[in-house]
Amino acid sequence: MDEQRETLQRIVSTLANKNDEIHNFIDMLNQTIRNVQVNSSKVIRELDEEFDALYSVLDEMKGTMANTIQQERAHKIQALHNQLSQCGSALESSEELLELAARTLNIMDPTEFSKAARQIKDRVTMASAFRISLKPSISDSMTHLMVDFSLERHALQALRFLPVPKAPEIDTAACLVADNCITVSWRMPEEDSRVDHFVLEYRKTNFDGFARVKDEQPWEVIDYIKDTEYTLSGLKFDKKYMNVRVQACNKAVAGEYSDPVTLETKAFLFNLDNTSSHLNLKVEDTYVEWEPTGGKGQEKVKGKENKGSGQYPVLKSNKRSGAPSPKRTSIGTSPTAKGSRDRFTGESYTVLGDTTIESGQHYWEVRAQKDCKSYSVGVTYKNLGKFDQLGRTNSSWCIHINNWLQSTFSAKHNNKSKTLDIPIPDRIGVYCNFDGGQLMFYNANSKELLYAFRTKFTQPLLPGFMVSIKKKYSISSTEFTLLKTNNCVLQEETWSIVFGQYFLKMFNRFHFFISIGTSAGRILHLGVSAMSVKVIKSL
């Protein structure tokens, strides 16, 4: 009976999920129908606009060319009229001379005849009838203004819809999710020289696939991308996934969108466990601060804030290491019970994360303030002793940065150290592949691999951080106020230095003894080590 009930419950759950999928698909189909109606009306309007523009150009060209023909006709007719007028004047003069010559032939007096004949000869020599051209100055041909639009007509008859660029293909292997940024890379299925630019759209979602229409977030658009790669920076990873899609555009039309790709953006979120941290560390959710006297912090190692929530370390994709998958595994973590272990003490200035890594791939980053002199970043099994330091046991791995006196950069495990001869970055990325036995440290800015541990993890891991204070103290006055020592709290008193000025070099387990007189008349011998000030003897 119970087994049948359980089976029926699974069937009901499966049917309910399938019904949700069908409802989602129906909503999507209805939305697609509405989009088809809207988009078809839009392209018809654009077609009318294009043809109206084409008609306008043809009408304008027709008017211009007709005006040219009319001007040519007027010019030719005017020139012919001018020539006709000249010919009329010449003919009138010639007829007058002809009449005069005819009368002269009737003169019988030789002297008068000779005189008249000379006058007619002179006038004929100067007559315009003999100086004008009897060839039309202008041709009646208008063939130079004829047109032949057969090629253009064929071109117009060949008008087709502009070829739509094909949908790009997103190259998931080249996509990168890291440092609150997503780099999307794509390619065209075939070469298309008419592609002018690309449009990238993205939206956040909590669904690994298609969300219901009513639950969808609006797409955010990045337009006019000339390259086939784009980096979305300054994102807030406050949703589990990011949908991205790309379309290609030519001068007039945009192509279909690429198939949407879902990239996982869920960060590995953890806080720092202040219940087991060293008492000299001031610990909050995302940072640890050295506070040896309860006063202002001297040293800080600060986890990069999650820009989505503003209070968690930003833990990013394993893509920082260049792995081919754009997704990061988000399984294999579990919170640890606070207060379940002893506080770190002695010289183990350590604080651990509150979430264990038990499987999968995870990434987070750490940023140290510029005045931080010494700190370690790494991972450890939960059995790290309260006196143990990161990298000095066989169950912890870290890189250590020491900026005191001279900068040193080293990788540590099982009390063995390897010096790293590379510049110290201001932000360090930590990539942990639990199942693959990889712990890699990166320059979070340049993505350069700093160091890699390869081992087989046999127990759950915790992020670990250690902050040390190693400073030189130059005491330049004859009195100072001591509020608190490492192992005991003293009444606030004014202390006078008996032996003047001292320069104290700090080394682990190396002590200097200074005699100090107090305003109460007591003399104390103080032992000064790298991490503490102890009252050794009171006189």
From TrEMBL:
Residues 105-162 form the COS domain. Residues 292-345 are annotated as: Disordered. Residues 279-485 form the B30.2/SPRY domain. Residues 297-307 have a biased composition (Basic and acidic residues). The keyword Coiled coil applies. Gene3D superfamilies: 1.20.5.170, 2.60.120.920, Immunoglobulins. It comes from the Eukaryota. Keywords: Coiled coil. Residues 164-268 form the Fibronectin type-III domain. Pfam families: fn3, SPRY. InterPro entries: B30.2/SPRY (IPR001870), B30.2/SPRY_sf (IPR043136), Bbox_C (IPR003649), Butyrophylin_SPRY (IPR003879), ConA-like_dom_sf (IPR013320), COS_domain (IPR017903), E3_ligase_FN3/SPRY (IPR050617), FN3_dom (IPR003961). Residues 327-337 have a biased composition (Polar residues). SUPFAM superfamilies: Concanavalin A-like lectins/glucanases, Fibronectin type III. PANTHER family: E3 UBIQUITIN-PROTEIN LIGASE TRIM36-RELATED, FSD1-LIKE PROTEIN. This is Fibronectin type III and SPRY domain containing 1 like. It comes from Anser cygnoides.
